[in-house]
Amino acid sequence: SLTGGIGTILGAILGTVLLSVVSSSLALLDVSVYWQDIIRGSILLTAVTADYYFNKRRG
């Protein structure tokens, strides 16, 4: 969390693995680097937005 929230080692590992798999898959599919950056950025933006809204509901 950007505001000092709590994260887990498992969450960090899963996020890293997800982005690595996506990057490798896009490279194997010969997707241009421009689109690879857009897709990875979209995944990160979606994750941060989802985290914000899920934590906003909790408290």
Overview of this protein structure:
The protein has 59 residues and is mainly alpha-helical. It contains 2 helices and no strands. Helix 1 (9-28) runs antiparallel to helix 2. The model has no long low-confidence stretch (mean pLDDT 88).
What is the H-and-E element order?
A: HH
Q: Biggest β-sheet: count, sense, barrel?
A: none
Number of helices: 2
DSSP helix fraction? over 70%
Number of DSSP E strands: 0
- Low-confidence segments, given as residue ranges, are none
Shape: elongated
Strand content: under 5%
Mean pLDDT: 88
How many whole angstroms does the radius of gyration measure? 14 Å
What is the CA-CA span between the terminal residues? Answer: 14 Å
Tell me the structural class. mainly alpha
Please outline the helices and strands.
Layout: H1 9-28, H2 33-58
Helix pairs in contact: 1-2
Short note summarizing the structure:
By secondary structure, the chain is mainly α.
Q: How would you describe this structure in keywords?
A:
59 residues, mainly alpha, 2 helices
